Amino acid sequence: MPVGLFRVCLLVITAIVNHPLFFPKENGTIPENTEEIIQKMKEREESLRLEQLRLEQEIADQEATQKALEKAAVVVEESKEEKVRWDMWTALSMVIFLLIELWRQDFQEGNWQDIGGEEDDMAVLGKAFKGVAFPDKAVLASFYEKRILGTTGDMARMREMVEGFADDLLEALRSVCNRDADMEVEDCMGVGSMYENWRVRKPFVCDLIVPFAPPEPYCFRCQTWCSGDSFPPDKQGYGTIKVCRAGEDATGCICDKTKLGEDMLCLLHSQVSSTRPSSEMEDLLCFKNTQYLDADQVMKWFQIAVTKAWNRISHKYEFDLSFSLLDSPGALKIKFKSGKSIAFNLTPVVQYENSDVYFISHFPRSSLAADNHSSTHWFLTFAVYERRFIQLVSKTLPANACHVSCLQILSFLHGKQCSLTGPSGLTNYHLKTVLLHLLQARPSQDWAPEKLEARLQDMLKFLEKCLHEKKLYHFFVGNGNVPAELGFPIIFQRAEPLNLFRPFVLRRDIYRKMVDTFHEMLRNMSALINEYTVHIPLAQTNGIRKDPL
Asked: Are 113 and 503 in contact (CB under 8 A)?
């Protein structure tokens, strides 16, 4: 029995050991499965190799992209640094340019009146004077005596007649106006060439200004372009006039300067007193829905008041009175039965504080004011101070000084040239401004009567210089050397100089016309003077067209 069991166990062990799964033979089916496995392993290896190549390519692309980005960043950084350097140089250049320009303007403004301290200041003639023959002293003296003095003898009598009639007309105007509602009219004042004794061109026209004030309890509060308020550049020389109640804002209350809440009330100014009906302000000749005085409304009121005043006193006079020009509301004309007539301008103005500077509504026959200006912006006129300055300086000049003669001759030549070639932007006011500068710049002895020729040349040279630079500064505005005897307001002396030629900088057509007219006047000057001088032969006047008076 044990031997049998042993044999059975040995048989089982032998069968297990010789099983083909443990020891496969070479001709079995196992090698086929191995080849498939090997093939799959090769395919797997190939796919892994391709994947490795793809990953390597992606890594290379990423590295190339990174390098490109780094290179671009370097380029951008370099460009930024270069731009910063360029911007710094540009800014530095602009700062240097502005400093130079400011220094140049300050130098010019500081020396804008130092034009005649020495004879060498005007020793060099400009291009416009090449080939120009100036009349000699004898010709100028003969021309002035026969042509200028012969036509200005009646000015004094005409001024006296116009002033007397204007006073009577204004007195009648006060009688027809409502003292409680209408504007209060003051006495008139004569200004301009007729009252400075240098007007030469006919017809003679007297310019009278009439200050007026609002009825009680109102008053005018004036603001100018140089008072610190914001005025646009094209409004230099202008100001506004606000109609207020007497004492309004006098306490310095901040209720008009800050926005109070709806539940807050100013104890000094009630809402009833601060808000006035629009119709009330329009009755005070203000612009619609504002408190600012309207120049057009003022002129309409003034024309109606003058018409009523004339109807009241017309029976006293043996002539007719009418408005002569539609574009100049204050232009009046006296017509006698004989056919003769006398023209004069009666223009309402508003006094600036307690000075003799006035806001003027319209400039008759002048291009000083802008063509399309707002009716709430009023131009400032310094005509009263100009007249006083000429009178003050005249007392220090030699007897029979030539300053007025120079202005008269130049005004005559300019007027004759405009009658030949048409009007230009250059006006008699510009010519008078040139004379005012020279009067202050040159010593008194330079205006002796025998120096008429030299001073006339000085005026022409100075005017040529101003035309070339497009700068002719107002005599009073920005002039710190105004004589103290005039009592001129300090606010205008400290203001920036006012360039009277500024409008022509933007209007090249007008500027070109003005320069051409000036050059034509220079070329025709000798012939014009000879034409109106009796003893000069006619052969010398062939170079210009005739325009007899």
From this structure: no
Residues contacting 467, CB < 8 A, separation 6+: 501, 514, 515, 518
In total, the chain counts a number of residues equal to: 549
The kind and range of the H/E element at 163 are helix 155-176
DSSP H helices in 111-150 = 137-143
**Position 106 pLDDT exceeds 60:** no
Q: How big is the CA angle at 194 (ends 189 and 199), to the nearest 5 degrees?
A: 160
116: pLDDT strictly greater than 60: no
pLDDT value of residue 139: 84
pLDDT tens readout for residues 159-173: 999 999 999 999 999
Instruction: Give the span between the Cα atoms of 254 and 262, in whole angstroms.
Output: 16
Q: Write the burial class of residue 355 (CB in 10 Å: 0-12 exposed, 13-18 middle, 19+ buried).
A: middle
Distance CA 448, CA 41 (A): 126
What is the torsional sign of CA 255, 256, 258, 260?
Answer: positive
We find that the CATH architecture of domain 127-247+280-534 is 2-Layer Sandwich (3.30)
Q: Which residues pair with 189 in a beta bridge?
A: 209
Q: What are the start-end ranges of the E strands in 302-390?
A: 319-323, 331-336, 341-351, 358-360, 378-381
424-480 pLDDT, tens digit per residue, is 889 999 999 999 999 999 999 999 999 999 999 999 999 999 999 999 999 999 999
In sequence order, which residues have a C-beta less than 8 Å from that of residue 116 and are 6 or more positions away?
122, 438, 441, 442, 446, 458
Report the C-alpha gap between 209 and 228 in whole angstroms. Answer: 28
Residues with Cβ within 8 Å of residue 281, at least 6 apart in sequence: 243, 289, 290, 291
User: What are the DSSP calls for 1-14, one per residue?
Assistant: -HHHHHHHHHHHHH
User: Contact, 223 vs 242, CB < 8 A?
Assistant: yes
Structure confidence at residue 19 (pLDDT) = 55
Q: Where are the domains of the chain?
A: 127-247+280-534
Decide: 128 and 464 in contact? Cβ < 8 Å: yes
pLDDT of residue 534: 55
pTM of the model: 0.71
Distance CA 248, CA 243 (A): 10
pLDDT digits (tens, 9 = 90+) for 353-407: 999 999 998 776 544 444 556 889 999 999 999 999 999 999 999 999 999 999 9
Collapsed DSSP state (helix, strand, coil) of residue 286: strand
Report residue 544's pLDDT band, with 50, 70 and 90 as the boundaries: very low
Q: What is the rounded distance in angstroms from the CA atom of residue 338 to the CA atom of residue 324?
A: 18
